[in-house]
Design a protein that fits this description.
Layout lengths: L2 H10 L11 E6 L6 E11 L2 E11 L3 H14 L4 H4 L4 H5 L10 H18 L9 H11 L86 E2 L17 E2 L11
Helix pairs in contact: 1-2, 2-5
Length: about 260
């Protein structure tokens, strides 16, 4: 494997980010590791064909996920939908060769890209807010109560003291965010990514944390009374004491639905 190229891709993250006026935003969960991918596609008409004018991705995944998605997106840009939906592992590996034990990453990237194309063809419109729009809304209203923030990408943002009560944050990206004193009471955080986030003194009363990830999060003083969890809720071993005040979902793992 070309480690220098791998490092450069992960440092520069080509094709990473959101498209404000995307024609489709598609969410895909890697069933192997639980990481979430979002694919943004901007489509244009050209010579009676639909061409991928622009494409980007976001992910909670590791360096191999980032590399596979970055190269997969690079390969499909400028191609017709028909060409793009026939992308193969060999196409991605023409840009970066993966080690034998990491061939599953380009396969997952391809599955995410094909799902995005299929969503577009089916006319599935994801009701989404980009980071820019969410922060503008927060600035105007002073809160994000009861907002539909599904799949929003707010990693590394300072959101201390923000009121998210009753909001839909399903599959939201909140890794390494500062959420100290934030209010998530009654919020839907199913499948949300809170890894390494600062959750000090945050309020999660009655929140839905099924399949949420809190690995490495600072939960000092956080309130989890009557929050819902299931076997997919991920915590550090030293954090599992919070389950004592939480409520376990009746049927354990519950398949997540996305819009």
């Amino acid at each position: 494997m070309d480690f220098e190229k791998f490092k450069k891709i992960n440092d520069e993250r080509p094709n990473y980010g959101e498209i404000e006026d995307a024609d489709v935003v598609s969410f895909y969960r890697n069933s192997g590791c639980g990481d979430g991918y979002r694919i943004f596609l901007k489509i244009k008409e050209e010579n009676n064909s639909k061409i991928i004018e622009n494409a980007t991705f976001t992910t909670t995944g590791c360096g191999f996920s980032i590399t596979a998605l970055a190269m997969g997106i690079e390969w499909i840009k400028g191609k017709s939908l028909e060409e793009a939906e026939n992308i193969t592992v060999a196409d991605i590996e023409s840009l970066f060769l993966f080690p034998e034990r990491r061939k599953n990453y380009p396969q997952s990237a391809i599955a995410a890209i094909k799902k995005a194309i299929n969503d577009y063809k089916k006319g599935i419109k994801c009701d989404y807010l980009t980071k820019k729009r969410v922060l503008e809304k927060l600035k105007i209203n002073g809160h994000l109560r009861n907002e539909n923030l599904q799949q929003v990408m707010l990693d590394n943002e300072d959101l201390s003291n923000v009121d998210f009560s009753g909001a839909n944050l399903q599959n939201a990206f909140l890794q390494s965010a500062n959420l100290e004193n934030a209010n998530f009471e009654g919020a839907n955080l199913r499948g949300a990514y809170l890894n390494m986030a600062n959750l000090k003194n945050a309020n999660f009363r009655n929140a839905d944390l099924r399949f949420a990830k809190l690995i490495g999060a600072n939960i000092e003083g956080a309130i989890f009374e009557n929050a819902i969890y299931d076997i997919g809720t991920r915590l550090d071993p030293k954090q599992i004491h919070i389950f004592k005040v939480m409520k376990k979902a009746d049927k354990g793992f519950i398949e997540l639905k996305t819009v």
